[in-house]
């Protein structure tokens, strides 16, 4: 297809069956021909350049022979109706797809694309099985985003994620639509949002309590949702019964990586998976203080230029019956080697072996200067190290996959955090050969808790020759404890990665009892900062050796 002009139509009306009007910006080849439609349905304003030429390049998609439609979802920006997260996206998505298929310049075939919330809008529409929907491309998203916000009963609550999303991305348009937008008051809170994330209790969060006390934020954080609503917006089981082809894309340092991988595994239709050295904010190869070559261009193993071209090739195959030049279904960026590899499956089994690494200490594993070690053999002697949690001085959030104001995703030196006396640190000997991690890293940690709630933060890092420790994967877990002060084994997944530690480097695990402001803080009295403010310092224990040999289960590339 030669170079052609692009025709733009603003705020094209899509009238739903209940009379609600959604408005769309339509970009299409200016030649009078019919083409397939690629549509993005979002709540973040279709006018923003990010959705036109940053995440993907819309002009290139039009030049490749597609009509591209950016549509504000119900109740957001140019569209009519009342917005409530997630609940309308299935039915509205079905009707929007069929509307797009009937446009006079449409070939009748429709694909959906988009990331994060507008990745979920694709999955919700696909579950409804609109006849004209031929393929989707959900990026950095999940089948149960409401569940991600809410968490499971008893789990730690990522309140900072919800607060950042609501105040930083959703609130301004909500207030304007209600006619009570006070610009000075709004920006008073927004400009200091990072500081406000430490406010407790989060279920009475002052910025939203002051700006919009009727916000659905309080439904979410207080759990005022019917089981039907929660179950209805969890698409995981429903995805097992659709056959619409889906292109999944994730980032090793994206906050929704676990959700992306879980959704990919649940999906039973034709599918493809790409995971790059990307964060939720950018797909350039920059992840915090690290930059990975071949992260933005010349990606994969099949001579693909960039994420826009992945999408074009995917939709060319399913909407235009063109050959598929991408040969294997799973494509992973191998961090530490700065290259891509293609596989036949995820999780990867054939090329991986599991190795156990044990925590060892004489009971003084506090700080990176303590006696905590990682060893391939368990110690015959049982010991324990004390882990302090002081709610007034929690261990800070840094790096990894985060979506909270004032905090950047990616890899950072966390060695100063490992100097804290409320952080336990276990470090391997210098590696005499490369250590290639590939897959899901799990842990079995023996612990005991002085209260009915036990919190643990686990993080693996790569320690270089200068002693700098760069985070690789991490997790935070909360457990309800039936028998206080009695040891039990906690089994959890730390995270998935494809990362190579170089010869001479060391592998390190650090353990803390808090990760703030990302998660609500355990107040050591059966409550957390989600609902209360008063707490006290307490000590939990991590066990090593003997019959309570805490360990990591690490997937190593063969």
Question: What is the secondary structure topology, with strand pairs?
Answer:
Layout: E1 6-15, E2 21-29, E3 35-42, H1 50-54, H2 58-63, E4 67-72, H3 89-101, E5 106-115, H4 117-127, E6 133-139, H5 145-150, H6 159-178, H7 183-191, H8 193-196, H9 206-211, H10 216-222, H11 227-232, E7 246-253, H12 257-266, E8 271-279, E9 286-287, E10 290-291, H13 307-320, E11 330-334, E12 339-343, E13 352-360, E14 373-375, E15 383-389, E16 424-427, E17 435-448, E18 453-463, E19 469-480, E20 488-501, E21 506-512, E22 538-544, E23 551-557
Parallel strand pairs: 3-4, 3-5, 5-6, 6-7, 7-8, 8-11
Antiparallel strand pairs: 1-2, 2-4, 9-10, 11-12, 13-14, 13-23, 15-22, 16-21, 17-20, 17-22, 17-23, 18-19, 18-21
Helix pairs in contact: 3-4
Walkthrough of the structure:
The chain has 558 residues and is an alpha+beta fold. The chain contains 13 helices and 23 strands. It has helices spanning 50-54, 58-63, 89-101, 117-127, 145-150, 159-178, 183-191, 193-196, 206-211, 216-222, 227-232, 257-266, 307-320, and strands at 6-15, 21-29, 35-42, 67-72, 106-115, 133-139, 246-253, 271-279, 286-287, 290-291, 330-334, 339-343, 352-360, 373-375, 383-389, 424-427, 435-448, 453-463, 469-480, 488-501, 506-512, 538-544, 551-557. The strands form four sheets. The protein has a ten-stranded mixed sheet with strand order 1-2-4-3-5-6-7-8-11-12, sandwiched between helices. Strands 13, 14, 15, 17, 20, 22 and 23 form a seven-stranded antiparallel sheet that branches. A four-stranded antiparallel sheet has the order 16-21-18-19, with no helix packed on it. Strand 11 (330-334) and strand 12 (339-343) form a beta hairpin. The longest helix has 20 residues, at 159-178. It is globular and about 75 Å long. It starts with 5 loop residues before the first strand and ends with a strand. This is Hydrolase. InterPro entries: AB_hydrolase_fold, CocE/Ser_esterase, Galactose-bd-like_sf, Xaa-Pro-like_dom, Xaa-Pro_dipept_C, Xaa-Pro_dipeptidyl-ppase/CocE. Residues 312-553 form the Xaa-Pro dipeptidyl-peptidase C-terminal domain. One of its GO terms (molecular function) is hydrolase activity. Residues 365-392 are annotated as: Disordered.
């Amino acid at each position: 297809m030669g170079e052609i002009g692009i025709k733009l139509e603003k705020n094209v009306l899509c009238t739903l069956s209940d009379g609600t009007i959604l408005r769309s910006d339509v970009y299409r080849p200016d030649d009078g021909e019919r083409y397939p439609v690629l549509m993005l349905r979002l709540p973040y304003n279709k006018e923003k350049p990010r959705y036109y030429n940053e995440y993907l390049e819309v002009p290139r998609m039009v030049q490749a022979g597609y009509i591209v439609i950016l549509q504000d979802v119900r109740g957001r920006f140019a569209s009519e109706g009342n917005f409530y997260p997630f609940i309308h996206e299935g039915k509205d998505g079905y009707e929007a797809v069929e509307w797009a298929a009937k446009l006079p310049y449409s070939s009748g075939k429709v694909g959906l694309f988009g990331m994060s919330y507008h990745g979920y809008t694709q999955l919700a529409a696909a579950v409804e099985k609109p006849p004209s929907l031929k393929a989707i491309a959900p990026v950095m998203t999940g089948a149960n985003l409401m569940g991600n916000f809410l968490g499971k009963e008893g789990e730690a609550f990522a309140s900072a994620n919800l607060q950042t999303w609501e105040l930083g991305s959703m609130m301004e348009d909500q207030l304007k639509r209600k006619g009570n937008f006070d610009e000075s008051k709004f920006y008073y809170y927004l400009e200091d949002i990072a500081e406000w994330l430490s406010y407790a209790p989060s279920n009475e969060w002052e910025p939203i309590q002051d700006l919009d006390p009727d916000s659905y934020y309080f439904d979410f954080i207080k759990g005022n949702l019917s089981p039907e609503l929660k179950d209805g917006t969890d698409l995981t089981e429903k995805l097992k019964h659709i056959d619409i082809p889906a292109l999944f894309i994730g980032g090793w340092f994206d906050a929704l990586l676990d959700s992306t991988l879980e959704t990919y595994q649940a999906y039973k239709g034709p599918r493809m998976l790409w995971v790059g050295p990307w964060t939720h904010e950018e797909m350039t190869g920059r992840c915090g203080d690290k930059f990975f070559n071949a992260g933005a261009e010349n990606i994969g193993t099949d001579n693909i230029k960039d994420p826009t071209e992945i999408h074009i090739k995917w939709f060319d195959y399913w909407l235009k019956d063109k050959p598929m030049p991408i040969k294997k279904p799973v494509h992973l960026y191998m961090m530490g080697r700065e290259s891509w590899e293609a596989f036949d499956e995820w999780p990867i089994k054939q090329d991986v072996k599991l190795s156990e690494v044990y925590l060892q200490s004489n009971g003084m594993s506090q700080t990176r200067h303590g006696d905590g070690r990682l060893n391939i053999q368990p110690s015959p002697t049982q010991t324990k190290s004390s882990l302090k949690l002081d709610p007034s001085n929690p261990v800070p959030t840094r790096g990894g996959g985060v979506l909270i104001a004032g905090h950047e995703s990616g890899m950072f030196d966390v060695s100063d955090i490992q100097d804290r006396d409320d952080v336990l640190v276990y470090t391997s000997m210098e590696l005499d050969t490369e250590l290639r991690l590939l897959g899901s890293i799990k842990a079995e940690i023996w612990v005991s808790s002085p209260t009915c709630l036990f919190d643990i933060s686990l993080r693996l890092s790569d320690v270089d020759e200068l002693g700098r420790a760069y985070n690789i994967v991490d997790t935070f877990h909360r457990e309800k404890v039936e028998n206080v002060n009695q040891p039990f084994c906690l089994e959890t997944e730390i995270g998935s990665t494809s990362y190579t530690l170089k010869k001479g480097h060391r592998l390190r695990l650090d353990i803390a009892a808090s990760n703030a402001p990302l998660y609500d803080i355990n107040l050591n009295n059966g409550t957390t900062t989600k609902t209360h403010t008063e707490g006290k310092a307490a000590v939990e224990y991590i066990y090593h050796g003997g019959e309570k040999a805490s360990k990591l289960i690490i997937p190593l590339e063969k």
